[in-house]
Each structure stands twice: as structure tokens, then as C-alpha cells.
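From the pipeline queue, job 12 of 40. The input is one protein chain; the requested action is below.

Action: predict structure.
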Amino acid sequence: MIKNKLCVLFSAFLLAPCFAAAMKSDAYFIDAPSPEVLPARSLGVNARAFSGGGLLAYFDFAVTGRFSVGISETFEHLVGTNDQKIKLLVPALQAKFRIYDGNEEWPALAIGFDNQGFLYDHETKEYTQKARGLYLNAAKEVLIPGLVFAPGVNITVEGFEFDKLAAFAAASYNIMDAAALLLEWDNIRALGQSRLNGGLRVYLYEGFNIDFALRDFNNKAERILQLKYVINL
């Protein structure tokens, strides 16, 4: 059964950190990237369950402590009781370089590329929500300990074709290293086109966390569940 396959897959995500040295890293908020890069020679794995029985899997490898490359793959109709055929979409690529670590006065900075879109339309053969594309973002702790603000700018892409200039902003609040509240304002070009995302990240143990989130809740909210872990290779 398809549902059983998903149970096996998620069990693998739950068990894998037990067999490898793991470490904590918050390279992404919900959709928005942070300037954080995984520790050198480590692998980040992220499984996101989304509407329509879909699963989006990310694999992110840190070449150095400043540079990482990754690939993502979307599986449609992986979960459910209907007879819809499982579909694999074209894989997407990610890359990030941490330019500056930041200090008490200046934020950390990173530049990157991500051509993973969301909500694929099979009629137009395009993503309804365009990929982030080329981006530059910053992050700094502000106002109170544990509160991080991370703004950025990007040029959206469809595949590898650059499209429009946009912006994004994310914030997280760390709660005693056990959980974090997440909030994003994404795709800032026009109020009707921007998206608000919010969620809760729970750190189960070092290197492994679960995200419960709502995407685009200012329009048509989409509930997602993410499992993430980082393995030291």
C-alpha cells in the first residue's frame, strides 16, 4: 500500500540519526533560506509532506563550512486511497555560499540559488509559486536574545530562466533550545501575490527536528509537516 510505503520512508527519517553522528543546523526557516550553512562534510535531509498526498525531499551536502550544494525531488500522490498514479517531477538544484559570519553590529550574509518551485500545474507545465532563484539574504539577532530577523532579495526563476525581482523576510524565536516559532513573509512583490507562512519547529534531539507549518495562510492555507536531520559524514 502507498500509505505503508510512506510509513516506512518516515520511519527511515526517524531512525537514521540514531546510526550517525548528528548536529544541529537551521539552514532554512520554512521556505526562506537563512545564511546558515551545514558544518563541513555533513548531509542535511529534509522530507516535507504537503497537500494532495505529495512529498518533497531535499538532500543538502556541505562541501565546506561555507558552501553547500543540494538537490530536491517532488513526488505527487505518494499518499492516499485514490488510484492516482505517483508522479516524479523534474529535480531541482540548490546552492549556497556564506559570505560573512556577522558580528555584534553586522548581520551574517549569504548568496544562493534555488530553483525548487511549489504547486506544479500540469496543464501549463509550470509551478504556480515560482522558485526563489538567485537570492541574497542576511540574518541577525535583534531586540531580545533568541529572536532572529532575516530579510532577503531574490530574482525568481522558472527552471533556469530568471523572471521577476522579489523580496522576503523571515523571523524565528528560540524557546530554550527546545523549540522555535517561525514566521515568513515571502514573494514580496505585490500584496496580493505575497505569502505569509508560520510554524513551530520542535528540536527532538541534536540534529533532528520536526516542523509543523501553515503556508500561504493569508490566501489559501496549506498545512505541511517537515522532518529534518543533519548527519556528519
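Job complete. The CA atoms of residues 92 and 116 lie 5 Å apart.
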